[in-house]
Specification:
The chain is mainly β. It is built from 19 helices and 79 strands. The chain has four domains: about 450 residues, 7 Propeller (Methylamine Dehydrogenase, Chain H); about 80 residues, no CATH class; about 475 residues, Methylamine Dehydrogenase, Chain H (7 Propeller), CATH 2.130.10; about 70 residues, no CATH class. About 10% of the residues lie in helices and about 35% in strands.
Length: about 1150
C-alpha cells in the first residue's frame, strides 16, 4: 500500500484517466514482433496480423493478477506481478517453451487443485504444428505442458478456448473456437457446410471427470462451419443452461448455439438476432445498461476516416445480397454491432445509435466500468499490419494483374507493392457510457496512448487500488499497460466492490456463476466467464463501480447448479470473497407475472397478409437509401356493412387484390367484397367515409409506388362508392391524378358539412427526389374538384409527402393542415376562412427538416391544445444530420441519360463528403470512373468537389437537419417547441403512431412501430425496433417500457398501425410490409360514443376539474384511419362534442 501511495503522488502524473506506463517502469518488454518476407506476408498468409491474446490470473495465489502474452513468431511470455505495477519475466524458469503460433490465451484451474493453469491455442495450416498447449501449474511458479495427456491437444486452426460446464455435471468442459486457411477466397458465395465438413468447424470437449477430455462435437451438434474469431458464453433464453455465441469472420454466419439441456446444441442465431457484423472479430457479453440482461458487442473494420472508408468499400448490390440470403447467409454488415437484449430474449442491434460502430480494423472490445460510476464503459483495440483492403492496391497495383515474367518475377512485383501499403495504426478507443444507451468517444481525454496495432487485451486491477487497469498485446511494439488513475484523480465518487468467487470442488473458480448487486432502483449483474474480447482471458475477480454508494443493499450470487446465497448491507471500496460452501438451495419463488398492458390477439387477423411484388428500385436508381415501392400497407377502420362492428381495409401491393375485411361476431376478420381491378395499383393510404351522403361508407384509396412509368394510368387514385348490395364500384368523381400519391386525409375544411381531401404526392416515379403534385380536393355532392391553386397553391409542389394531419393547431375552431415528408420541413398551413396559408415561419419550427414518415396529435400535457408526435428516420444509421451539419442531396440528370442521379452528402469529422462508395457512384453515373480513377482520389473529394459549378446549375438541392422522432409541444397561438423522444424511439424509422392511455393513469401514452429491411446494402437494415411503448406523464415527457410490461412485440417492417375501439377495449392493428397482420388488445371495457362523420373534436372534463381536448381524424399516423368512436374515460365528468360547423352536443354529463 505504501508503494501505491507513492506512485499516486508522482508530480508528473498525467491529467488523463489512463497513464500508459513505460516498460522501464513495469518490466514488461514483450513485443509480438512479426517480420514480413516475400514468402510470408498478408497475401500468402491471410492471418499474419491477427495477433495474439493476453491472459491474466493469479498463478501463485498472492492476490496479484499475473500476465501471459501470446506470441506469434516470437515466444510467449509469462510475467509475475510483483506489486506496484511492476512485473518479472519468469517465462524460462516457469517452463513456458516456444510453442508455435500462439493465438488465444485462457486461464483456468483445469485440474481443480487451487492453482491457475494456462491454455494456449496454436494456429497452423500444418496439423503437426497446430496442437494446442496446456500448461499445468505445479505450485511453485513452474508449469508442465500436458495438453496431450488431458486430450486437449486439438490440432485444428484454433483461435480461443472457453471453459464452461455445458452439461451441468459440475466440471468444466471446453469449447474450441476454430478458424481455417482455405484454398479459395473466404468470401466466396457457396453452400454453408453444416455437416462437419468444414475445416473451420468448432470443437466441443467433454470433461470426463478424471483430468481427461473427449471430443463430443458431432454428437453435440457442433457441426456448422465458421471462421471463428470471438466467443462468449451466455444464457440467451433464460432456461438455466449456458449457450455459446461465436463471432465468425468473412461470409460465414455467426453461430448462437442454444443448449438443449440434453448434451446437444441447436444454432439459433436467426431466431434471436436480425443482423450481425460482417467480419466478426472479437466480442464481449455484458449488461451495459443495467437492466439485468446481458448485451453483446462485436467488432468489425468500418473506418471512422472518410478516406479510409472510401478506399476499402467495394461495390455491393441488392441482387448479390439476395443471393446470399437464398443460400442461408444472414444479414451481415461491415460495422461494429451492439446487440441490446430485450426482455423477450430477442436482440435489437443499435451500434450506430450508440455511436460505437466505426472504429476501423478492431479486435478486442471489453465492456467494463472504467471510471467506477456504476455504468460499464467500452475499451477496444484496433490496427493491422498492412492495409490489404485498399482497393487501389487490389485493383491497380503493378504485378497483381501483370502477366509478364516468370512466377518469381511476378511474386517479387506483387510483394514490392505489398511493402508500399500503409500500416493501419490507430489509437485504441475509449467510450464512456452515457447512461442513455449511448456511448461518448473519450479516447483523447481518457488516454494519451500512441497509435498501435493492438490485438488481444484484458482488464484487471493490477495494483489492487480499486479501479481496472488495461493491458494490450501489440504487434511490432511493446505491450501497452494502461494504469487507471480513477482512484487517484477522483476519490469521492468512484467507489467500487471487488468480488472473488470460491467455487465448488470441481469448479473452484466458480465459472458460470452470476453475481447481482441491488441498490436503490439499480441492479448490476455480471457472469463469471473470463474469456472475453479477443483471444484473451480477463481477471476472474469481478469488479463493480458504484459511484457515490457507500454500501450496497444486497448481493446475490447464483452458482451454476442453481444454489444461491445473499449478502446484505455490504460496504463499498473493498474486496470480498464469496464461497460456494455458504450457498443454499432456495425454492423457486418467482413473483407471478403481472398482466401486460396489451395482449396478443393475432388470431383475429391471421388471414390478412400483405404480399409485396418482386420489383427492386435499386435496379433503376442504385443510390436510393431505401426502396420507394414498398411503402405500404395502410389501414382504414369503419363499419362498412352497418352491423355495428367495425370492419377493416388493408391496402395491397401492385398485382395483389384488396378486400374489405368484415369483422365477425367472434372478433375475427373475414374476407368481404373485393375492390374492382385493385391489383392494378400500388395502394397506399385510404379513407372510409360516406362521401356522397347516401348513408353508406365509401372508400378513397391513394395509388402510389415507384414501379411504373411516370404518368401511368395506374397512378390514378381510386374512389370506390359502396352500392346498396354492399359491393363497391369505381366512381368517376375524381379529377385526373397521375401523381404517385401516399397519404389521403379528410376534413371539412370549408365548413359546408361534407368531407374534403388532402392528397399528398410521395414522389415522381423513378426520379427521386423530384416532387410531384399534391392536391386539395373539394367535395361537391360526392364528386371531387381540384381546388389546390385557389385554396393552397403552395401545396401543389410542397414536397415528397408521407403523412399529413387536419388539425386545429391554433384553437380557432377551423381545421388547419400539417404536412410532413421526406427532405421536408414540418409544414404548417393555417385555415384562414377556407384558404390555407403557409405559416411555418411563424410556428417556431422553420428549418426542422427530416425524413418525416408520420404524424399524430393529442393533448399530451392537458393544456387544451394539440401536441404532436412526428415519426422520423431515426439515428440508428451512419447518416447524421443537424442544423450545423445537415444531410444534403443534390439531384439532376448529370450524365444526360434520361435518369435523375441523386447524390447524398453527409458530414464526417466536420467535413461534408459524398455518401456513396466510388463503385456505387459509378453504377449511377458511369462517367465518374474517369473523374475519380483511384479510390483515394474519390476519398479525398468533398461533397462540393464531386461536381463542377457548371454541372450543378439547375440541380435540386435539399437538406435534412434532424433524423430524430420528435415531440412537438403546442405553446399556444400556433407556436411550438420540439424535443426528441427517448433514445429507444430513435433505433429505427418510425411509421405507425398510436395514442392511448395504456396504463390507465390518466395520461396519454404512445405506441410506435417501424423498421426497414429494404435498405441499401452497405449501411444495411434498419430493423432494430420490436415495437415501442412510451408511457406519458401528462407533462409532455415519456418513458420507455419493456415488452414484459407492455406485451407489445412487432414482427417485421411495420407500417400502418390502426386503433379499433370496441366496448371491451381497444385493438391495435399492426400492418407489416410483406408480412402478416398483428393485433394487440387493451382490455378495458368502457362506454363508447359513436361519432358522427362531421365531428371534429371533444372537450373532456374530468372529476378532478381538469380538462383536455381530443380531436377526431380521418387519416393520421402513417397511412391510417382509426375508429370513429370515443372511449369515455372512467373519470370523465362531462364531454362536449363539436362538429366542423362548430355546433356542439352533449356526449356525457355527470354534473
Amino acid at each position: 500500500m505504501m508503494l501505491i501511495a507513492v506512485v499516486g503522488c508522482r508530480p508528473d502524473r498525467p491529467t488523463s484517466k489512463f497513464e500508459l506506463l513505460p516498460s522501464s517502469e513495469t518490466g514488461i518488454t514483450f513485443s509480438n514482433d512479426i517480420k514480413e518476407t516475400i514468402d510470408f506476408n498478408p497475401l500468402n498468409y491471410l492471418y499474419i496480423y491477427n495477433g495474439a491474446g493476453v491472459g491474466t490470473g493469479d498463478i501463485n495465489n498472492d492476490g496479484l493478477p499475473d500476465l501471459f502474452f501470446g506470441g506469434n513468431e516470437v515466444p510467449s511470455r509469462l510475467y509475475l506481478n510483483k506489486g506496484g505495477m511492476t512485473f518479472e519475466d519468469i517465462t524460462e524458469s516457469a517452463g513456458i517453451s516456444k510453442e508455435g503460433w500462439a493465438t488465444g490465451i485462457s486461464f483456468v484451474d483445469i485440474n481443480t487443485d487451487g492453482l491457475m493453469d494456462i491454455y494456449v491455442c496454436i494456429a497452423s495450416k500444418e496439423a503437426a504444428k497446430a496442437e494446442n498447449k496446456l500448461y499445468i501449474n505445479q505450485g511453485n511458479t513452474t508449469f508442465k505442458e500436458e495438453a496431450k495427456a488431458y486430450g486437449l491437444n486439438d490440432s485444428g486452426y484454433s483461435t480461443q478456448v472457453a471453459f464452461f460446464d455445458y452439461d451441468k455435471d459440475g466440471d468444466l468442459d471446453a469449447y474450441v473456437l476454430t478458424n481455417g486457411m482455405e484454398s479459395f477466397n473466404h468470401n466466396n458465395l457457396r453452400p454453408i457446410k453444416k455437416n462437419n465438413q468444414g475445416i473451420s468447424t468448432d470443437r466441443l470437449y467433454k470433461n470426463n471427470g478424471n483430468n481427461t477430455f473427449t471430443n463430443v462435437s458431432e454428437e453435440a451438434g457442433i457441426t456448422i462451419e465458421g471462421y471463428g474469431l470471438g466467443i462468449g458464453i451466455l444464457d440467451v433464453n433464460n432456461d438455466g443452461w449456458p449457450d455459446v455465441y461465436c463471432s465468425n469472420d468473412f461470409i460465414t454466419n455467426d453461430l448462437l448455439w442454444i443448449n438443449n439441456g440434453d448434451g446437444t446444441f441447436t444454432d439459433g442465431i436467426e431466431k434471436y438476432i436480425t443482423q450481425t457484423s460482417s467480419n466478426g472479430m472479437g466480442m464481449d457479453i455484458a449488461d451495459y445498461n443495467n437492466d439485468g440482461l446481458e448485451d453483446i458487442v462485436q467488432m468489425d473494420m468500418l473506418p471512422e476516416s472518410n478516406l479510409h472508408n472510401k478506399t476499402m468499400t467495394p461495390v455491393m448490390n441488392y441482387n448479390g445480397q439476395t443471393l446470399r440470403y437464398d443460400k442461408g447467409y444472414m444479414p451481415q454488415y461491415v460495422r461494429n454491432t451492439l446487440q441490446l437484449r430485450n426482455k423477450d430474449a430477442s436482440f435489437s442491434e443499435m451500434g450506430r445509435l450508440a455511436g460505437i460502430h466505426k472504429t476501423d480494423w478492431s479486435w478486442a472490445p471489453l465492456i467494463a466500468d472504467l471510471d467506477n460510476d456504476g455504468l460499464k464503459d467500452l475499451f477496444l483495440t484496433n490496427g493491422y499490419g498492412k492495409d490489404i483492403t485498399d482497393l487501389d492496391f487490389s485493383n491497380y497495383a503493378v504485378g497483381m494483374n501483370n502477366p509478364f515474367g516468370n512466377d518469381s518475377v511476378r511474386k517479387a512485383r506483387i510483394y514490392d507493392n505489398v511493402k508500399k501499403l500503409p500500416t493501419i495504426s490507430l489509437a485504441n478507443y475509449f467510450y464512456k457510457n452515457e447512461g442513455d444507451l449511448s456511448f461518448k468517444n473519450v479516447t483523447k481525454t481518457w488516454s494519451q496512448g500512441p497509435n498501435s496495432i493492438s490485438n488481444g487485451a484484458i482488464y484487471a486491477d493490477l495494483d489492487l487500488d480499486g479501479d481496472l487497469d488495461l493491458v494490450s498485446n501489440n504487434i511490432n511494439s511493446e505491450a501497452f499497460v494502461y494504469k487507471n488513475l480513477t482512484m487517484e484523480n477522483k476519490q469521492q465518487n468512484t467507489r467500487y466492490l471487488a468480488v472473488k468467487l470460491k467455487g465448488p470442488e470441481l469448479n473452484p473458480g466458480g465459472i458460470g456463476a452470476e453475481v447481482t448487486l441491488f441498490y436503490g432502483n439499480t441492479i448490476q449483474k455480471t457472469h463469471e466467464y473470463p474469456v472475453r474480447g479477443y483471444v484473451s482471458s480477463v481477471d476472474p475477480v469481478l469488479h463493480f463501480g458504484l459511484g457515490k454508494r457507500n454500501s450496497v443493499d444486497s448481493l446475490r450470487v447464483t452458482w451454476p447448479d442453481g444454489k444461491t446465497q445473499i449478502q446484505r448491507n455490504i460496504s463499498t471500496n473493498t474486496r470480498i470473497e464469496l464461497s460456494y460452501d455458504d450457498a443454499k438451495t432456495i425454492a423457486d419463488e418467482r413473483i407471478p407475472k403481472k398482466p401486460t398492458l396489451l395482449q396478443k390477439a393475432d388470431g383475429t387477423v391471421s388471414r390478412m397478409v400483405h404480399k409485396e411484388n418482386a420489383y427492386v428500385d435499386f435496379m433503376d436508381q442504385p443510390l436510393l437509401l431505401k426502396m420507394l415501392s414498398r411503402e405500404g400497407p395502410g389501414l382504414a377502420v369503419g363499419d362498412v356493412d352497418g352491423d355495428g362492428r367495425e370492419d377493416l381495409f388493408m391496402s395491397t401491393a401492385l398485382k395483389d387484390t384488396s378486400y374489405i375485411w368484415n369483422r365477425a361476431k367472434d372478433g375475427t376478420f373475414k374476407k368481404g367484397p373485393a375492390l374492382p381491378q385493385s391489383w392494378k395499383y400500388e395502394q397506399q393510404g385510404s379513407i372510409l367515409a360516406d362521401f356522397n351522403a347516401d348513408g353508406r361508407p365509401d372508400l378513397y384509396v391513394a395509388s402510389g409506388g415507384n414501379e411504373l412509368p411516370y404518368e401511368s394510368g395506374n397512378y390514378q387514385d381510386q374512389l370506390y362508392m359502396q352500392q346498396p348490395d354492399g359491393s363497391f364500384e369505381v366512381s368517376g368523381g375524381l379529377p385526373q391524378i397521375n401523381s404517385s400519391t401516399a397519404t389521403v386525409n379528410a376534413s371539412d375544411y370549408d365548413g359546408d358539412g361534407d368531407l374534403d381531401l388532402f392528397v399528398g404526392s410521395r414522389l415522381k416515379p423513378n426520379s427521386y427526389p423530384v416532387v410531384d403534385q399534391s392536391y386539395i380536393l373539394q367535395n361537391i355532392n360526392g364528386s371531387f374538384k381540384d381546388v389546390t391553386a385557389a385554396v393552397a397553391p403552395e401545396i401543389a409542389d410542397i414536397g415528397m409527402v408521407t403523412s399529413a394531419l387536419w388539425t386545429d393547431f391554433n384553437n380557432d375552431n377551423a381545421p388547419d393542415l400539417i404536412v410532413v415528408g421526406e427532405w421536408m420541413e414540418i409544414t404548417f398551413f393555417e385555415n384562414q376562412n377556407g384558404l390555407l396559408k403557409n405559416v411555418t415561419s411563424e410556428s417556431g419550427m422553420p428549418g426542422l427538416s427530416g425524413f418525416w414518415n408520420s404524424i399524430n396529435g393529442a393533448d399530451f400535457d392537458g393544456d387544451g391544445d394539440i401536441d404532436y408526435i412526428v415519426g422520423n428516420f431515426g439515428e440508428n444509421t451512419d447518416l447524421t444530420a443537424s442544423e450545423e451539419e445537415p444531410l444534403t442531396i443534390v439531384a439532376k440528370d448529370f450524365d444526360n441519360n434520361g435518369k435523375i442521379d441523386p447524390i447524398l452528402g453527409c458530414y464526417v469529422n466536420g467535413v461534408n463528403y459524398p455518401v456513396p462508395s466510388r463503385d456505387a457512384l459509378i453504377s449511377q453515373i458511369s462517367s465518374m470512373k474517369g473523374r475519380f480513377r483511384f479510390y483515394k482520389d474519390y476519398g479525398k473529394a468533398t461533397f462540393d468537389e464531386v461536381f463542377t459549378k457548371k454541372e450543378l446549375q439547375g440541380a435540386i438541392r435539399k437538406e435534412v437537419t434532424s433524423l430524430k422522432t420528435t415531440y412537438l409541444e403546442n405553446k399556444g397561438d400556433g407556436k411550438f417547441v420540439h424535443k426528441a423522444l427517448p433514445l429507444v424511439a430513435q433505433m429505427a424509422p418510425v411509421y405507425g403512431i398510436s395514442i392511448e392511455d395504456l396504463d390507465d393513469d390518466g395520461h396519454l401514452d404512445v405506441l410506435l412501430t417501424g423498421n426497414r429491411t429494404d435498405t441499401e446494402t452497405l449501411g444495411g437494415s434498419m430493423n432494430s425496433s420490436k415495437g415501442i411503448v412510451l408511457l406519458g406523464n401528462g407533462k409532455g415527457n415519456f418513458q420507455n417500457t419493456t415488452v414484459d410490461v407492455s406485451g407489445f412485440y412487432t414482427l417485421g417492417d411495420a407500417r400502418g398501425t390502426a386503433q379499433l375501439v370496441t366496448n371491451e377495449g381497444v385493438d391495435f392493428l399492426v400492418a407489416n410490409n410483406d408480412g402478416v397482420m398483428q393485433c394487440f388488445t387493451k382490455k378495458s371495457p368502457k362506454k363508447t360514443i359513436l361519432l358522427k362523420q362531421n365531428d371534429t373534436y371533444a372537450e373532456v372534463t374530468l372529476t378532478d376539474g381538469t380538462s383536455y381536448r381530443q380531436e377526431f381524424y380521418f387519416g393520421s399516423g402513417y397511412l391510417t384511419q382509426n375508429s370513429r368512436k370515443l372511449q369515455v374515460p372512467d373519470t370523465a365528468m362531462e364531454i362536449i362534442i363539436f362538429d366542423s360547423q362548430n355546433a356542439s352536443r352533449q356526449g356525457l354529463n355527470k354534473k
